[in-house]
Amino acid sequence: MVKKPEKRQPKIVSRVKIADSVTDEIRQLILSGEIADGSPLRQDALAEQMGTSRIPVREALSRLESEGLVASFPHKGYVVTGLSRSDIEELFDLRTMLEPDLIRHAIPKMTEEDLAAATAILEEYDAALLTGDVDTWGDLNRQFHMALYAPSGRAKTLDIVRGLLVNADRYTRLVLTVGYGIDKAQEDHGGLLDLCRRGLINQAVALTRDHIERTGADLLEMLDARDRETTGEPAPATA
């Protein structure tokens, strides 16, 4: 008697895909601000909202914890993390140290395919800005930067920077949403891509550093202005 083949692998693949989808959805809710900093994340409620079991939700939250978007506490569960003013300063300081180095190593290794991929992402990004598609801005911004850095081949640094970009995303969106620096951001991205295409390494390194520093400064200025409106005091330096 011939046994019927077991169909376990498709279930595993399906479970992985579900966890990927749930991770993306919860991440988007956090980055868009729909789930605010400090909010508790109830696994049963999220599972019901997304039409799935608690297993992929639990896996998704574990992944998001490794990205720094959520934190887990005994007897409390998962909570959306927030960044203090000093955290944001540190985040952008790290970006300023690491990303110029990535672009320096990436440019000599860039191919036409790499440049074409970055160009396509930038076109989508510009279109999203024109239509006010806030949810897409952050994702495309990360994709654009990572597309330029990827040819560097520096896997460890790329992983660190990817995490920094994810954490910076929700705050960068705030800057763009209220109109801070949109035109300059577009100009910087286009200029950076042009410098990469022309192989002008030193200029690209300088522009990358300036772009990150300016974005961080705009964000802190905006947060301070917002806090002065509500409390009369600038954002606190520590959490």
Q: What attributes does this structure have?
A:
Arc Repressor Mutant, subunit A, mainly alpha, 2 domains, 239 residues, 3-stranded antiparallel beta sheet, Four Helix Bundle (Hemerythrin (Met), subunit A), 9 helices
Structure summarized in a few sentences:
The protein is built from nine helices and three strands. The protein is mainly alpha-helical and 239 residues long.
Notes on the protein architecture:
The chain is mainly alpha-helical and 239 residues long. It folds into two domains: 8-80, Arc Repressor Mutant, subunit A (Orthogonal Bundle); 85-231, Four Helix Bundle (Hemerythrin (Met), subunit A) (Up-down Bundle), CATH 1.20.120. It is built from nine helices and three strands. The protein has a three-stranded antiparallel sheet. α1 packs across α3 (54-67), α4 (85-106) packs antiparallel against α9 (201-231) and α6 (134-149) runs antiparallel to α7. It is globular, with a radius of gyration of 20 Å. Residues 16-83 form the HTH gntR-type domain. Keywords: DNA-binding, Transcription, Transcription regulation. One of its GO terms (molecular function) is DNA binding. It comes from Sphingopyxis macrogoltabida. Pfam families: FCD (PF07729), GntR (PF00392).
